[in-house]
From TrEMBL, chain A:
InterPro entries: DDOST_48_kDa_subunit, OST48_MD, OST48_N. It is a single-pass type I membrane protein. GO terms for cellular component: oligosaccharyltransferase complex. This is Dolichyl-diphosphooligosaccharide--protein glycosyltransferase 48 kDa subunit. The chain crosses the membrane at residues 374-394. GO terms for biological process: protein N-linked glycosylation via asparagine. The lineage of its organism: Eukaryota, Sar, Alveolata, Ciliophora, Intramacronucleata.
From TrEMBL, chain B:
Pfam families: DAD. The chain crosses the membrane at residues 36-56, 62-80, 100-117. PANTHER family: DOLICHYL-DIPHOSPHOOLIGOSACCHARIDE--PROTEIN GLYCOSYLTRANSFERASE SUBUNIT DAD1. It is found in: Endoplasmic reticulum membrane. Subunit of the oligosaccharyl transferase (OST) complex that catalyzes the initial transfer of a defined glycan (Glc(3)Man(9)GlcNAc(2) in eukaryotes) from the lipid carrier dolichol-pyrophosphate to an asparagine residue within an Asn-X-Ser/Thr consensus motif in nascent polypeptide chains, the first step in protein N-glycosylation. N-glycosylation occurs cotranslationally and the complex associates with the Sec61 complex at the channel-forming translocon complex that mediates protein translocation across the endoplasmic reticulum (ER). All subunits are required for a maximal enzyme activity. Pathway: Protein modification; protein glycosylation. It comes from Paramecium primaurelia. It is a multi-pass membrane protein. This is Dolichyl-diphosphooligosaccharide--protein glycosyltransferase subunit OST2.
Length: 396, 118
């Protein structure tokens, strides 16, 4: 009876959005709820959305040391936020995601906040201009097909300022949507014009910033010739950690000729087998599927201070990546290391420590032809010693 | 000294001849036997080093035990020789005790060598 009750309760609670992730939307312009209704529709399909005014005191990011939200959406304004930049960064450092919808007249607060992610907004009042790729001859509404990491088939429209990258592209900071070849904004040329920029922290928290928040408005989302709707979906999926999520598990290493998994130690020059399963999260099927890297770039390092091996793993069956290799002729404490830093994907950092021991005294090769002089010398000395002893003791 | 007066000490051969003359007349028979063994060990070391430069030290453990067997025996032998020679005796220990210590050292050396030979 009790079991039945628990079952009923479970079914009831599974249906409620209680376990949904919570998103906080901050804006001081009520008009965005009308102009971005599509965007909020998409959002509320998967998340529980809380709308607050930037200026209000009625929300807490953190309450009694616990973060109250999983993701944060900021509509930038000319006003400053009540929350300090440091608290927002702490929010990000705790592994939570932030989406910043920028605009060119945003306050210094937002510019500073953007700078802490390696991105920079173009000058005040600037707007990206493109005389070749635009909509209906209006050179302020520019289009581009230069989309990385996200999957968008149609051209994406943009209106307003662009972002620049403060340092050059790294494995952590990249432009998701970049300006076309002919775009420019003031002195910034196409290689430094980013419409949607992103940063992924070493804790795999994701930050997405757009140069203008108009590109997610209904005006562009309803236009079926443009890819802005797909882009919005992709930004929500990628930015809030649903797509391009990797996990590694089932790390196995063993001697090639034995089934003893993770042995206590290896002897130098032994054949060793290493394998690991890498999965990618599939948001459509809601399950982990085997991750397939097309570029053969999952690299295994066998490290003791320096890497002695740095070899790409071979794709095996299912999610398995495997490799067999010979332990080097050096003994000490080694590590199997995988440092998979692929832009757009969560970073995989795996390290497994093992010991490599030298030969035991009875494991050396015996009766080797080239070692005969040494054998002769060893036993010759002993024989010579016996002869010497006899001669020495009998001599009076 | 009267035996050495008719060798010419200014030439290299003269020096060698003088040395040999002194050695064969002055050194006791027992020390001569020790020197023969030392020479035998020394030659073994030289041959092995020569062979190693030609062929390489691939079975490193065998190479080391071969070299150390000969060189170790050489060194221990020289130590005993110093003890038995009254002119070079350095610690006041009896010849018998020196010989037993020599024997123990040799046995330890050979055990190590056999263990490491492979």
């Amino acid at each position: 009876m009790i079991k039945f009750l628990i079952l009923i309760l479970g079914i009831v609670f599974a249906g409620t959005p209680y376990n949904q992730k919570k998103v906080l939307v901050l804006s001081d312009n009520p008009a965005v709820y009308v102009s971005h209704s599509q965007f909020f529709n998409l959002l509320s399909k998967t998340y529980r959305v809380d709308y607050k005014n930037i200026q209000s005191n009625t929300f807490n990011l953190q309450l009694f040391g616990e973060w109250q939200y999983d993701h944060l959406i900021l509509f930038s304004t000319t006003n400053d936020l009540k929350v300090s930049i440091q608290e927002l960064l702490d929010f990000y450092d705790s592994g939570r995601n932030i989406l910043l919808l920028g605009s060119t007249d945003q306050s210094k607060y937002f510019r500073k906040f953007l700078n802490s992610f390696g991105l920079d907004m173009h000058e005040y009042g600037s707007s990206v201009i493109d005389y070749f790729n635009n909509i209906k001859g209006n050179h302020n509404i520019v289009t581009t097909t230069n989309v990385n990491i996200l999957k968008v088939d149609k051209p994406v429209a943009h209106q307003g300022a662009g972002l620049a990258m403060t340092p050059y592209e790294t494995f952590q900071v990249y432009g998701l949507v970049r300006g076309s070849e002919t775009a420019f904004s003031g002195s910034n040329l196409s290689h430094n014009i980013i419409y949607v920029g992103a940063t992924q922290g070493r804790n795999n928290a994701r930050f997405v910033a757009t140069g203008s928040w108009e590109i997610l408005s209904d005006e562009y989302l309803n236009n079926s010739n443009l890819g802005n709707f797909e882009l919005t979906q992709e930004i929500i999926r990628w930015g809030f950690g649903q797509s391009k999520i990797l996990k590694a598990e089932n790390l196995i290493h063993r001697r090639l000729d034995s089934d003893d998994i993770k042995p206590y130690n290896y002897r130098l020059r032994e054949d060793c087998y290493f394998s690991i399963d890498i999965f990618e999260w599939d948001y459509q099927k809601d399950q982990w599927i085997p991750y397939v890297s097309t570029e053969n770039d999952v690299i295994l390092e066998f490290v003791m201070l320096d890497p002695y091996y740095r070899v790409p793993l071979k794709k095996g069956q299912g999610a398995k990546y495997e490799l067999s290799f010979k332990i080097p002729d050096v003994y000490g404490v080694f590590q199997f290391k995988i440092n998979y830093l692929k832009p757009g994907y969560t970073f995989l950092k795996i390290a497994e420590k093992i010991t490599v021991r030298p030969f035991r005294h009875d494991e050396y090769g015996r009766y080797l032809v080239q070692a005969y002089p040494y054998y002769f010398s060893s036993f010759g000395t002993m024989a010579g010693f016996v002869v010497f002893l006899i001669a020495f003791l009998l001599n009076k | 000294m009267s035996d050495t007066k008719f060798v010419d000490e200014n030439s290299l051969i003269g020096i060698a001849a003088s040395f040999w003359q002194q050695y064969s007349t002055k050194t006791p028979q027992k020390l001569k036997i020790m020197d023969a063994f030392s020479l035998y060990c020394f030659i073994l070391v030289i041959i092995q080093l020569f062979y190693c430069t030609l062929v390489g030290d691939f079975p490193r453990n065998s190479f080391l035990s071969g070299i150390f067997a000969a060189a170790g025996a050489l060194i221990i032998n020289i130590c005993l020789r110093k003890q038995l020679n009254p002119e070079t005796k350095y610690m006041e220990i009896s010849n018998e005790r020196a010989f037993w210590e020599y024997l123990a050292a040799m046995i330890v050396l050979f055990l190590t060598v056999i263990n490491f030979l492979g």
